[in-house]
Design brief:
Order of helices and strands: HHEHEEHEEEEEEEEEEHEEHEHEEHEEE
CATH architecture of the domain at 173-275: Beta Barrel
CATH topology of the domain at 173-275: Thrombin, subunit H
Shape: elongated
Strand content: 25-35%
Largest sheet: 7 strands, antiparallel
Oligomer: single chain
Distance between the termini: 122 Å
Number of helices: 8
Radius of gyration: 35 Å
Structural class: alpha+beta
Length: 384
């Protein structure tokens, strides 16, 4: 019996060893279908799901859908200038009938901001145009009427006569912060409506020499020729600004674009629609930023105000007692730290309504009452 048990144990050992060798060297000899899955297991979305049901992570499709319908293309044309001597018979005798030069055309963008058909765009897009055509994203076209323009902010208001217009929602541009994501929508180079994305690179850009009143939103969203007047929107599709200009050495986008904030555009639009023009205050001074040396002499920190280097004779400031050498630190309670802020604060004053100026002089601080006049165009920049 003991001998039989020993023989059985040896046989089992040999069989197990043989199976191990075969399974290692020739697995196909064994039937392993029950041990190996037929396909690689993966996580797969349901086949019934539509690609548009849920936005992909980081997608701006919702914002683009919400805003793009309200962004329009603007085509302008200008008749060629006739030669003033073409009616002179002697000129026609020697030179014949002069063929006018080719008609000039332009291209830009705009934003529908009201169901009544009001369109915001840049003044330089429609400036001096004889005909303006607005083309909607759905293909409809309309001749546009110019309601008013404001060259000092480079804004213009048009009106089109169409129904069932897609209207953009105006956002709070004052709530923007550096790093916020934004989209630029327009018609660059006339290729058709285009959406580009980026972030807010800077706020309150001034002294760029683009407009008289500057408070630009800077963005790295691609803006190219033809984008002027188009929309800068947030991730909700709300209008944050009107794309206006780019910094470029090549004529194309270099990642530095500028947009006029919605807060500025809204105030300009309301004034133009209500009164036909933008009314701004004016006091007649020549301001200069307060440098470190001048600030020290007044006992102020640099940027604590604006020094007045000249006063227009018999102007509102002169009548209020402002004199060269005064440092204006606030206008009607609104602090001013540079020339651009002073210009903006004075422009916001209502002509004929007294306002308070906080002034610092060698002998100390004082407050003066000034009654601003109306800022007229054109007026030299020296007299603000």
């Amino acid at each position: 019996m003991k001998r039989l048990w020993l023989l059985f144990a040896q046989t089992v050992t040999v069989v197990v060893a043989a199976l191990f060798v075969v399974a290692t060297l020739q697995p196909q000899w064994l039937d392993r279908k029950s041990l190996t899955p037929s396909v690689v297991p993966v996580l797969q979305a349901p086949s019934s799901a539509s690609p548009g049901d849920t936005p992909a992570m980081g997608s701006f499709r919702t914002a683009a859908k919400v805003a793009s319908g309200a962004v329009v293309s603007i085509n302008t044309s200008k008749a060629p200038a006739a030669n003033p001597q073409s009616s002179d018979p002697w000129f026609r005798f020697f030179f014949g009938d002069q063929v006018p030069s080719q008609q000039q055309s332009g291209l830009g963008s705009g934003v529908i901001v009201s169901p009544a058909g009001y369109v915001l765009t840049n003044n330089h897009v429609i400036e001096e145009a004889d005909e303006i055509e607005v083309v909607l994203n759905d293909g409809r076209k309309s001749v546009a009427q110019v309601i008013g323009t404001d060259p000092e902010t480079d804004l213009a208001i048009l009106k089109i006569d169409l129904t069932e217009l897609p209207v953009i929602t105006l956002g709070n541009s004052d709530a923007l912060e550096i790093g916020d994501q934004v989209l630029a929508i327009g018609n660059p180079f006339g290729v058709g409506q285009t959406v580009t994305s980026g972030i807010v690179s800077a706020l309150g850009r001034t002294q760029l020499g683009i407009n008289t009143f500057e408070n630009f939103i800077q963005t790295d969203a691609a803006i190219n020729p033809g984008n002027s007047g188009g929309a800068l929107v947030d991730v909700n599709g709300h209008l944050m600004g009107i794309n206006t200009a780019i910094y470029s050495r090549s004529g194309g986008s270099m990642g530095i674009g500028f947009a006029i904030p919605t807060s500025t555009a809204r105030s300009v639009m309301d004034a133009i629609v209500k009164e036909g023009q933008v009314t701004r205050g004016w006091i007649g001074v020549e301001p200069q930023d307060l440098g470190p040396e001048l600030a020290e002499s007044f006992g102020l920190r640099p940027g604590a105000g604006v020094i007045i280097t000249g006063v227009l004779q018999n102007g509102p400031a002169a009548q209020a007692g402002i004199r060269p050498g005064d440092v204006i630190t606030a206008v009607n309670g609104r602090n001013v730290t540079n020339v651009a802020q002073l210009l903006s604060a004075v422009a916001a004053l209502q002509p004929g309504t007294p306002a308070t100026l906080d002034v610092v002089r060698k002998e100390g601080k004082t407050q003066l009452q000034v009654t601003p006049g109306r800022r007229n165009l054109p007026r030299q920049a020296a007299a603000r």
